[in-house]
Write a structure and sequence with these properties.
It is a single chain. By secondary structure, the protein is mainly α. It is built from 11 helices and no strands. The radius of gyration is 30 Å and the shape is elongated.
Length: 359
């Protein structure tokens, strides 16, 4: 009879053990999926942002080709390039940005008709398109920043959990080696602070797991006041459960090589867009001050690109900034070569984005 009872209890224990493991495994899988989904959403938003930046450059280029070069065919080709990049952006954009992209695509059709029929509306339509692409890009940037914030919170939660685990380990050392309940109590209070910090930045699913850790920490503190033996068990449980939570949370989030490259490409695209605006401002429709302002904007983007680049590329960005300064001086002095310097700058910017940007 005893053997039967023992066998039954053993079977129950095994089933219970597998059930607990199953729950933990399900929780780990769920949290890992949450983290991966957050990272994927951010990457997708970043891809849409870069594609929209390319489309903006295409539309600015179309406007320049029509106004300065009187080249409708070249402008039409730039519109084709814009449509290609808008399709790419649409594929990874959020719902709101997709609606904006669809509006842009419709407007491009109208601009193409105006160009082919040599309508007087062609240039105003291209100008409107360039402006609208700017606002669409800004909306996409806002979406990327929202996703980046979510990703940053994921990382903050994990860091706080690591610190909570370290504090729990300090408490265990205080009890088992130093025989100091006072030190253990302080370490457990520190663990509670880190757990509260982790929960504040955690997703709903992860916050539920951290709430259980907070109960473990409170139980360990209570046990310290009741006796070292019980306190050791409770503190050890806190360490183990915090480690399990960290494993469920997954590895620390870091930018992929693709994400780093996308951010670099976006920076260079914005620099090129600013140079296109400067060229048009200097040649046709604005004051010298406005052209200078656009050149300053381009220089600022290249300075940012330089801060993100490796050593070889940093030198190239330094040269671009120096050339921008030279062009600004030439414009200010009214030199005949100012226009050529600006055109050469644009050519170099295009080569960087279109050739090196595809690596």
């Amino acid at each position: 009879m005893k053997k039967a009872i023992s066998a039954t209890l053993l079977a129950f224990w095994l089933i219970s053990g597998f059930t607990v493991q199953g729950v933990l495994s399900a929780e780990q899988t769920g949290q890992t999926k949450d983290r991966e989904a957050t990272e994927m959403e951010w990457q997708q938003a970043l891809k849409a942002q870069v594609a929209l930046a390319r489309a903006k450059v295409n539309l600015l280029k179309a406007r320049t080709e029509l106004w300065l070069e009187k080249n409708s065919e070249a402008a039409l080709q730039s519109l084709e390039d814009a449509k290609t990049n808008l399709r790419k952006a649409y594929g990874t954009a959020d719902t709101v940005t997709r609606r904006r992209i669809a509006d842009l695509q419709e407007q491009i059709k109208s601009a193409e008709t105006a160009l082919r029929t040599k309508s007087d509306k062609a240039y105003p339509e291209l100008t409107n398109l360039a402006d609208k692409s700017e606002s669409t890009l800004n909306a996409a940037i806002a979406e990327t920043q929202t996703k980046a914030t979510a990703l940053k919170k994921e990382t903050s939660t994990r860091i706080a959990l690591v610190q909570a685990r370290a504090a729990a380990l300090k408490a265990r050392i205080a009890l088992e080696i130093e025989q100091s309940p006072e030190k253990a109590m302080r370490a457990l209070e520190e663990a509670q602070e880190y757990l509260a910090e982790a929960k504040a930045s955690a997703s709903k699913r992860t916050a539920e797991g951290i709430a259980q850790l907070e109960l473990d920490a409170q139980a360990a503190k209570q046990a310290v006041t009741e006796g070292v033996g019980k306190a050791k068990d409770k503190t050890n449980a806190l360490v183990v459960h915090t480690e399990e939570q960290l494993q469920a949370y997954g590895k620390q989030v870091s930018e992929s090589e693709e994400a780093v490259l996308l951010r670099k490409r976006y920076t260079e695209l914005e620099a090129r867009a600013a140079l296109l605006k400067a060229q048009l401002a200097a040649s046709a429709e604005a004051t010298l001050e406005q052209a200078q302002s656009y050149l300053d904007e381009a220089k600022a983007w290249y300075a940012r690109a330089q801060s993100q680049a490796k050593e070889t590329a940093r030198l190239e960005f330094q040269k671009m900034q120096k050339r921008i300064d030279d062009t600004k001086d030439a414009l200010k002095e009214g030199e005949k070569q100012a226009g050529k310097k600006l055109s050469d700058l644009l050519k170099s910017a295009a080569e960087r984005v279109e050739v090196k940007g595809e690596e």
